[in-house]
Amino acid sequence: MNMITFMLTTTLILTMALTSLNFCITQMSPDSEKLSPYECGFDPLGSARLPFSIRFFLVAILFLLFDLEIALLLPLPWAIQLKYPTTTLTWTSIIILLLTLGLIYEWTQGGLEWAE
């Protein structure tokens, strides 16, 4: 058995074992508090259908943008083995510079402020 088959088999067995263990151990007895739309400890006072603030979406998009930056920078340590590692370092520096300039722009425009 080669290593890939062993890893796939081990992963499949472990996944099935943990999933079946989860179904066996969990308690499926929902009460009125768990079935309510709010689980934060107080009764809802207003409508749950109020629109979100656009600032919430802006912060969420900025978080996703910087999260993707990490995914773009992940292969950087392996760039040392390339023929021209300075090319990868240049592109990485350009990406970081663009993201930093975008963050500075958002900061100066007040896009990261929750209250005005």
Automatic annotation (TrEMBL):
Gene3D superfamilies for this protein: NADH:ubiquinone/plastoquinone oxidoreductase, chain 3
Organism classification: Eukaryota, Metazoa, Chordata, Craniata, Vertebrata
Name this protein carries in UniProt: NADH-ubiquinone oxidoreductase chain 3
A GO CC term attached to the entry: NADH dehydrogenase complex
TM annotation in the entry: 52-76, 88-107
PANTHER family, A to Z: NADH-UBIQUINONE OXIDOREDUCTASE CHAIN 3
GO MF term set: NADH dehydrogenase (ubiquinone) activity
Highest taxon in the source lineage: Eukaryota
Signal peptide: 1-17
